[in-house]
């Protein structure tokens, strides 16, 4: 059965950094590039159009859609199919429990659900440190993530990592161990 990793957490919790560490451990780990409709940062996204989004929705191929920062971010079935066909383990970054649940429920694979966490203050420091021009929006997203977890206390996580005390390399090793033992 195909495998995948769902990384959930607030902005600047370390999703990109831990993903890089996982890819360094094993080339089968690949970041899933969500489809993005909108403007701004294009790094790490497959840029799409409203017409493409409409077509995916018409065919039932949108597994999860998130509207944030004035853009639309999509986890799509064809995108996941393309990554998994070569035996790769996609790593999806999600900021909402609903997204984790939607992907895990609607795409057949053995999903490892990972909660990466850091404090609001750490999000602010990391966001400013990496030069984000929208730190205030990211702090609003942090607040939404915290509220999301409060409302979804029954959400199940295979692993919770506090990235303020756990290095990215250690987090990656823990996740890799989880994925390998669940195969």
Total E-strand runs: 9
* CATH classification class: Alpha Beta
Q: Name the strands of the widest sheet in spatial order.
A: 2-7-1-8-9
Structural class: alpha/beta
Main sheet record: 5 strands, parallel
Silhouette: globular
Number of helices: 7
Short key terms for the protein model shown above:
183 residues; alpha/beta; Rossmann fold; 4-stranded mixed β-sheet; 7 helices; 44% helix
What does this structure look like?
This protein is α/β, with parallel strands linked by helices. It has a single domain, classed as Rossmann fold. The protein has 7 helices and 9 strands. The strands form 2 sheets. The chain has a 5-stranded parallel beta sheet, sandwiched between helices. The longest helix is centred in the C-terminal third of the chain and has 17 residues. The radius of gyration is 16 Å and the shape is globular. 34% of the residues are buried. The model has no long low-confidence stretch (mean pLDDT 93).
Brief summary of the model shown:
This protein has about 180 residues and is of the alpha/beta class. It has helices spanning about 15-25, 50-60, 75-85, 95-105, 120-130, 135-150, 170-180, and strands at about 5-10, 30, 35, 45-50, 60-70, 70-75, 90-95, 110-115, 160. A hairpin with a 2-residue loop joins strand 5 and strand 6 (about 70-75).
Write the layout of secondary structure elements.
Elements: E1 3-8, H1 15-25, E2 29-31, E3 35-37, E4 46-48, H2 50-58, E5 62-68, E6 71-76, H3 77-84, E7 89-94, H4 97-106, E8 110-117, H5 120-129, H6 135-151, E9 159-162, H7 168-182
Parallel strand pairs: 1-7, 1-8, 2-7, 3-4, 8-9
Antiparallel strand pairs: 3-6, 5-6
